Amino acid sequence: EGKLVLETTVASEAGPLIRLMESISGALHVTFEEGTQAEWLYEVVWGYVTEVIVCDPRRNKLLEEGSKGDKLDARKLAELMRAGLLRTVYHGQQEATRKLKQLVRAYENLSQDTQRTMARIKAVYRSRGIASRGRAVYQRTQREQWLEKLTEPGARQRMEWLYEELDQLGPIRRRAKQAVLSESRNHRAVALLRTIPQLGPLRSALIVATVDTPHRFRTKRQLWSYSGLAVVTHMSSKYEIKEGRVVRSRKPIATRGLNRNGNRRMKEVFRSAATGGAQMEPYRWYLEKLQQNGMKAEMARVTLARKIAAIALSIWKKGETFDPKKLNGTT
Fold first, then answer.
1. Strand partners, 52
2. Nearest to 303 by CA among 250, 255, 237, 239
3. Secondary structure of the chain in the HEC alphabet?
4. Distance between CA 328 and CA 302 in Å, rounded?
5. Fewer Cβ atoms within 10 A, N terminus or C terminus of the chain?
6. What digits encode the pLDDT tens for the residues 16-29?
7. Which of 52-66, 78-92, 245-259 tops mean pLDDT?
8. In this structure, what are the phi and psi dihedrals at residue 77, rounded to the nearest 5 degrees?
9. What is the mean pLDDT of residues 299-311?
């Protein structure tokens, strides 16, 4: 009813949290924002309450207004939940995919660290006015030649450490990738998705680890939005009055690109699959047909990415393998 009946501070530990929830009678609804401890906190509380809402902090614009503090944020979250204005972030209870999720996260972190180190190596050379195009700067056989270009001792020492870091990350990242591929073989969904062209073992493992279950999405459009492949449209004056009657306006809908609040991993998987399959069958003819109908090349690739996502969702739900004859039927 909007009345504050209890306010307290509790340690971020399973025991105190469970005792607090058990001390409250009646239906208990809990909400907290997505963050570092969200997955652990969800696992702790979900068996003791009626509803758990892990909400998207990017949608909670009310929290940005006025002063900020733990008590104020908690009260604002409670008000947003009471009004039904929170957008839920999915946290499933799929034990089968838990190990795959952790392995995928580890592989991604190592890949990001590798890319960051490579970027830092080139940044040092650029800061000294040394052009470093291509990948030759990373090759072990050419490092001495590149190091000789750094005449300042501090910069040279820094570069040696960066090269050492890059050498250490490479083998670890490869082991992490093999661990992901090995674990993915235990999941039937991965085997099904691998039958789709351009969705190899790694991309299929990324999809299963991220989505968890295809039944999260009732329609393909929900998957497109989650994957950052939904087209954002802007339109005003949708209706107008003509001869005393309300009719739909013929004003064209303006597009504003793709939605920005999608899952970056899923967006990269489907867009890279579409880019890789642009020059290969069975996708090439599909792209050519779109472009012949007047669609721009960039939009055609986005449409192909949405097509691959729709096929993946359909195959996963039905437990079937990919059939190229159905490519034109899945829109």
1. 30
2. 255
3. CCCCCCCCCCCCCHHHHHHHHHCCCCCCEEEEECCCCHHHHHHHHCCCCCEEEEECHHHCHHHHCCCCCHHHHHHHHHHHHHCCCCCECCCCCCHHHHHHHHHHHHHHHHHHHHHHHHHHHHHHHHHCCCCCCCCHHHCHHHHHHHHCCCCCHHHHHHHHHHHHHHHHHHHHHHHHHHHHHHHHCCCHHHHHHCCCCCCCHHHHHHHHHHHCCHHHCCCHHHHHHHCCCCEEEECCCCEEEECCEEEECCCCCEEEEECCCCCHHHHHHHHHHHHHCCCCCCCHHHHHHHHHCCCCHHHHHHHHHHHHHHHHHHHHHHCCCCCHHHCCCCC
4. 16
5. N
6. 999 999 999 989 99
7. 78-92
8. -60, -40
9. 93
Residue 60 confidence class, pLDDT cut points 50, 70, 90: confident
Q: What are phi and psi of 255, to 5 degrees?
A: -95, 145
Percent of the chain scored above 70 by pLDDT? 97
* Cross-strand partners of 53: 31
Convert the pLDDT of each residue in 216-229 to its tens digit. Answer: 999 999 999 999 99
For residue 16, is the peptide bond before it cis, meaning its omega torsion is within 30 degrees of 0? no
Contact 256, 232 (CB under 8 A): yes
CB-CB contact of 142 with 125 (8 Å): no
d(CA 113, CA 172): 11
Token pair of 86 as six digits:
């929170």
Radius of gyration (C-alpha) of the chain in whole angstroms: 25
| Spatial separation of the C-alpha atoms in residues 229 and 267, rounded to whole Å | 7
Q: Which of 294, 31, 63, 313 has the alpha carbon at shortest distance from 193? A: 313
End-to-end CA distance of the chain: 45
The answer to whether 136 and 105 are in contact (CB under 8 A) is no
